[in-house]
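Researcher: First entry.
Model:
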Amino acid sequence: MTLQLKVPKMACSACVNTIAKAVQSIDPAANVEADTKTKLVKIQTVKSESAIREAIADAGYPAA
């Protein structure tokens, strides 16, 4: 499944790396693409949206 989430606090490549690591900690095969200008994160994963949102929020980047 592909998720597209808006992450307002994402501002730089370090933020992107933190978010990617958070997602991959619960789904190692997940593909994470992020655009710091639009604040959009596109995630291809087998995990539920709620699990992905929780992992990103736990890393300090709650999705809108």
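Researcher: Second entry.
Model:
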Amino acid sequence: MKRKSMENSVCSVARTLDVIGDWWSLLIVRDALNGLTRFGEFQKNLGIAKNMLTQRLKQLVEQGILEVRPAADGSAWNEYVLTDKGRALQTVLVALSQWGGEHLYECAEQCSVLVDSRQRQPLRKLVPQAQDGRELAADEILPLQRTHP
């Protein structure tokens, strides 16, 4: 069944999910952020079917999240490299990781934790903040329609 496109939605969450809303796409971006670049690396790490991976990579390239480049080592292979737009998704993945770590694991169950590469300390929890730095609760945030600059 074909899903409904949200590409013309006024809601930025809906538009975002239209582009990266399936788990394979976000997991590919996660792996690319972790240094994977080749089709075979993604396929092996994710255990995804080749046809599904081909489709997801194509969509991510079409959306400007990944770009295809000749392999850095000069081999005949291509590499999938994150664009600035793709790297900007790291904040989304950090938020998902932190939410999952807080809500989806039992006490004493092992889970991955994102850490600062230099100090090896967990990242500070992402929280919504006002322009003046105040942390905002869910009931202090409203959607507002505006014209994109």
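Model: Note on the second entry: Residues 65 and 85 are 5 Å apart (CA to CA).
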